[in-house]
């Protein structure tokens, strides 16, 4: 799981709320984290591997969207590995981890492991948040024809730069001037929590706005491509809208428990006595959401692959061939022929259709293809039933 409580637990003088959740059934909690992360890791890799029996047309070109989706999955895989490693050490070597609580201990390795593993998990999941934000930005720019594969360099600089900067800044402020003095006041903890949750809240607030604008722009593109908005094009726009909805649904499911848990723990910290009887329900809710975080946070990797690609099946093809994207047939025909053949339903307007710019048509379909790239849940029915496909 990814929580700033992992870093604050490395402080020997940790706050009472952190002490409450970290000492609640640690063996059970670590076992839940290992199980959830392991299942997610295996299923995510299975989802990404090429499958037997898939059609294998050569894709016209790569896109920044497909690269970003792959990088999001890689961040989740590496973050899951960090969760498995950290929880395994906690389960296998309880005496080693117990030395973290010693303020004047001479063995620095327990503290180094605690800080290092927590930073690894936090950095990778934060980078995944930034990549998801970049995906929303890229989707909007692609429709506006202002982005392409070359912009991936800018996304790398922004994502890794901001993720590393915020992580290092939050850790430095938390542990300044040393581990023995961290968590002595809110001036240490508050900046750390802000830098941790800033990218998460950014995705929750900004991504839905960008996705909604992208869907509206897609509708305009589909209308402008043939001059009318047919039922097939409406279905295509709906499929893209559903895909964006699935992505945000997975994100909310996996990380809403973190926000709830953090709110409850902050409320408990402000109380003079955290063990009061009146606070029993709040303590129980905080512990329940803590366990839920251990289950849902690592599962993000697998759930995202379902939102991106749908269920790809069990039959793995280890020949490492590129699989065709079902939506790609719209743009592949334009790349091969450099123009659209006259649609079946518009033969009477063939002279008017010649006036349409071939370059604009190609860019329109390539933009729509990039947005739906990697999604196998939509079947081929939309592309087969489209006027472009029929004419070809």
TrEMBL record:
It is found in: Apical cell membrane; Lysosome membrane; Melanosome membrane. Keywords: Cell membrane, G-protein coupled receptor, Glycoprotein, Lysosome, Membrane, Receptor, Transducer, Transmembrane, Transmembrane helix. Gene3D superfamilies: Rhodopsin 7-helix transmembrane proteins (1.20.1070.10). GO terms for cellular component: apical plasma membrane; lysosomal membrane; melanosome membrane. The keyword Coiled coil does not apply. One of its GO terms (molecular function) is L-tyrosine binding. It holds the Pfam family Ocular_alb. Its main location: membrane. InterPro entries: GPR143. PANTHER family: G-PROTEIN COUPLED RECEPTOR 143 (PTHR15177:SF2). Receptor for tyrosine, L-DOPA and dopamine. After binding to L-DOPA, stimulates Ca(2+) influx into the cytoplasm, increases secretion of the neurotrophic factor SERPINF1 and relocalizes beta arrestin at the plasma membrane; this ligand-dependent signaling occurs through a G(q)-mediated pathway in melanocytic cells. Its activity is mediated by G proteins which activate the phosphoinositide signaling pathway. Also plays a role as an intracellular G protein-coupled receptor involved in melanosome biogenesis, organization and transport. Belongs to the G-protein coupled receptor OA family. Interacts with heterotrimeric G(i) proteins. Interacts with ARRB1 and ARRB2. Interacts with MLANA. This is G-protein coupled receptor 143. It comes from Scopus umbretta. The gene is Gpr143.
């Amino acid at each position: 799981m990814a929580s700033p409580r992992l870093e604050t637990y490395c402080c020997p003088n940790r706050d009472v709320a952190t002490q409450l959740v970290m000492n609640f059934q640690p063996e059970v909690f670590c076992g839940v984290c290992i199980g959830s992360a392991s299942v997610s890791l295996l299923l995510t890799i299975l989802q990404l591997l090429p499958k037997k029996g898939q059609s294998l047309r050569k894709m016209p070109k790569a896109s920044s969207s497909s690269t970003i989706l792959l990088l999001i999955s890689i961040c989740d895989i590496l973050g899951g590995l960090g969760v498995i490693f950290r929880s395994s050490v906690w389960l296998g070597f309880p005496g080693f981890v117990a030395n973290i609580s010693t303020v004047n201990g001479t063995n620095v390795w327990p503290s180094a492991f605690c800080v290092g593993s927590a930073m690894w998990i936090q950095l990778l999941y934060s980078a995944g948040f930034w990549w998801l934000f970049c995906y929303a930005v890229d989707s909007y720019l692609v429709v506006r024809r202002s982005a392409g594969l070359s912009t991936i360099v800018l996304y790398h600089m922004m994502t890794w730069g901001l993720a590393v900067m915020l992580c290092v800044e939050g850790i430095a402020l938390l542990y300044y001037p040393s581990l023995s003095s961290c968590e002595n006041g809110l001036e240490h903890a508050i900046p750390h929590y802000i830098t941790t949750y800033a990218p998460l809240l950014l995705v929750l607030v900004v991504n839905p706005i960008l996705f909604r604008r992208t869907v509206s722009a897609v509708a305009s593109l589909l209308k402008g491509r043939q001059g009318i908005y047919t039922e097939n094009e409406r279905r295509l726009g709906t499929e893209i809208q559903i895909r964006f909805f699935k992505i945000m649904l997975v994100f909310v499911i996996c990380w809403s428990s973190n926000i709830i848990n953090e709110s409850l723990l902050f409320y408990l910290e402000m109380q003079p006595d955290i063990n009061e009887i009146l606070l029993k329900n709040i303590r129980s809710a905080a512990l329940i959401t803590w366990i839920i975080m251990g289950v849902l946070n690592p599962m993000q990797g697998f759930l995202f692959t379902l939102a991106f690609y749908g269920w790809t099946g069990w039959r793995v093809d280890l020949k490492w061939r590129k699989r065709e994207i079902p939506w790609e047939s719209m743009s592949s025909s334009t790349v091969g022929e450099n123009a659209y053949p006259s649609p079946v339903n518009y033969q009477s307007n063939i002279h008017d259709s010649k006036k349409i710019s071939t370059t604009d048509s190609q860019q329109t379909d390539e933009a729509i293809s990039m947005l739906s790239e990697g999604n196998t849940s939509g079947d081929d029915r939309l592309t087969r039933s489209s006027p472009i496909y029929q004419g070809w």
